[in-house]
Amino acid sequence: MKGKLVFAAAALSIATSCVFAAGETVTVGGQAMYPTRDIVDNAVNSADHTTLVAAVKAAGLVDTLKSPGPFTVFAPTNEAFAALPAGTVDTLVKPENKAMLTSILTYHVLTGRYDFRKLDTAIKAGGGKASIRTVNGEMLTFTENGPRNIVVADAAGHTADISTYDVYQSNGVIMVVDKVLMPK
């Protein structure tokens, strides 16, 4: 009986640590991102993602990103948006450019929960790269650049580094990226 209890306790400990690892609270933009909140409820608290949040609101994607999902969002930082040519963001958030803004934002979203492990597995299965269809219908390409370093490439071959991995949400996962990716 004692052996069974030790085994059961060890199994419970392993199961609990796996759940905790997938549900840790991560800090992004100086604020805690709670795994019990959805993508939007967490993102609005990040000081590093105010431009992204404003763009999501302007595109009318708040309800979508609050839905059950799951989604994987490659979330460009404010610095990533600031690196775009001058006036780009101001132009994109105008009502007459909503379709273009929506296309760019949904190019940063995958249907499903793609954490580091799932992306890594897809890259290895693809012989060193994986192409995954985004919500806007176009592909993003993923490769590895060293251990635990995945690079995301857009349709034109421009790349973004993932600076923060596996920010779990109740309806998906956020990966923080350092560039805005552009569809065709």
From TrEMBL:
Q: Which Pfam families match?
A: Fasciclin
Checking InterPro entries in the record gives:
Adhesion/Biosynth-related (IPR050904), FAS1_dom_sf (IPR036378), FAS1_domain (IPR000782)
Q: Which organism is it from?
A: Paraburkholderia phytofirmans OLGA172
One CC-aspect GO term: extracellular space
Note the Gene3D superfamilies from the entry: FAS1 domain
What protein name does the entry list?
Answer: Fasciclin
Signal peptide boundaries: 1-21
**Coiled-coil region:** none
Entries under SUPFAM superfamilies matching the protein: FAS1 domain
Keywords, comma-separated and alphabetical: Signal
Domain FAS1 residues, every copy: 36-181
